[in-house]
């Protein structure tokens, strides 16, 4: 019995391939009382009716055509859950200087996780007018690491929690030398993204069923539990990792100079 029901009934036998329909009517002006067994005794009326369900009449256990809101790509999933990239910032105004620290950060601070969304879909009715409800689950999880590329051949993975502050990088070559183009260094940052999508439903026998939803809406593997459905695809789950899917706006080319002391005559 869930929250909101005022009476409890225990049916110990005689239920086989049948559906129970419970209706509750109550008088709001007459409060109920708590009983020693933990139930609330309410003067309202509870009716229970039993309807036989022939085997297989509640559906085949195959999910219906998914709704149009199931993402067709990781970009659509990011947009649906409002995962947005930020802007790479630096304290270097016009150029970088070799062997001097240049500070880099991301505004706003990178996201670590996003609330999942669940879309309920009513399946087609059977000959007896019974329908299954399918819950489509979508979760997008940016990685805990930001991949920095400083435009001089140096790439660094930095915890996302620390990217809201300042990360210092030292350039060791001037523009036009080594891996740095003549126009200067372009600094980029990105995060990997995990996308979890599956559908869950309770079949006619009362057992929970799960099936992965692939990009575009097609159905894939059938994990046995929700915990397994949330596992990585390589482990039989429904979570696919997309490398560098969340890309922050880069800092465009800035020249890298070397400051030399000019002797005074």
Overall 3D form: elongated
State the separation between the terminal residues, measured CA to CA: 94 Å
Total individual domains: 1
Q: Enumerate how many helices there are, as a single number.
A: 2
**Beta content:** 35-45%
Helix fraction, binned, reads under 10%
Cα-atom Rg, whole angstroms?
29 Å
The helix-and-strand class reads mainly beta
Order of helices and strands: EEEEHEEEEEEEEEEHEEE
Sheet bearing the most strands, described? 8 strands, antiparallel
Mean pLDDT: 78
Please tally the β strands and state the result.
17
pLDDT < 50 runs, ≥5 residues: 1-24, 46-59
Give the helices and strands, then pairings.
Layout: E1 18-25, E2 33-34, E3 40-41, E4 45-52, H1 74-80, E5 87-90, E6 96-97, E7 101-107, E8 117-122, E9 133-142, E10 145-149, E11 155-159, E12 167-170, E13 185-202, E14 208-212, H2 226-229, E15 239-247, E16 251-254, E17 256-257
Parallel strand pairs: 6-17
Antiparallel strand pairs: 1-4, 2-3, 5-7, 7-12, 8-9, 9-13, 10-11, 10-13, 13-14, 13-15, 13-16
């Amino acid at each position: 019995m869930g929250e909101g029901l005022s009476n409890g009934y225990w049916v110990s036998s005689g239920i086989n391939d049948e559906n129970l329909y419970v209706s509750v009517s109550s008088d709001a002006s007459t409060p109920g009382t708590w009983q020693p067994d933990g139930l609330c005794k309410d003067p309202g009326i509870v009716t229970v009716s039993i309807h036989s369900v022939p085997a297989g009449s509640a559906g085949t256990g195959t999910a219906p055509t998914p709704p149009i809101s199931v993402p067709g790509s990781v970009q659509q999933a990011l947009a649906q859950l409002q995962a947005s990239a930020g802007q790479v910032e630096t304290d270097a105004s016009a150029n970088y200087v070799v062997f001097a620290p240049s500070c880099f950060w991301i505004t706003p601070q990178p996201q670590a996780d996003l609330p999942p969304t669940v879309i309920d879909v009513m399946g087609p009715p059977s000959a007896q007018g019974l329908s299954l409800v399918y819950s489509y689950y979508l979760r997008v999880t940016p990685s805990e690491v930001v991949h920095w590329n400083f435009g001089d051949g140096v790439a660094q993975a930095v915890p996302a929690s620390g990217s809201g502050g300042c990360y210092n990088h030292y350039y060791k070559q001037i523009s036009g030398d080594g891996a740095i183009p003549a126009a200067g260094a372009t600094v980029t940052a990105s995060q990997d993204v995990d996308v979890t999508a599956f559908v869950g439903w309770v079949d006619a026998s009362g057992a929970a069923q799960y099936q992965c939803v692939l990009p575009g809406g097609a159905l894939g593997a059938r994990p046995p539990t929700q915990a397994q459905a949330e596992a990585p695809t390589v482990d039989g789950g429904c979570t696919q990792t997309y490398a560098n899917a969340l890309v922050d706006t880069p800092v465009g080319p800035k020249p890298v100079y070397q400051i030399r002391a000019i002797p005074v005559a």
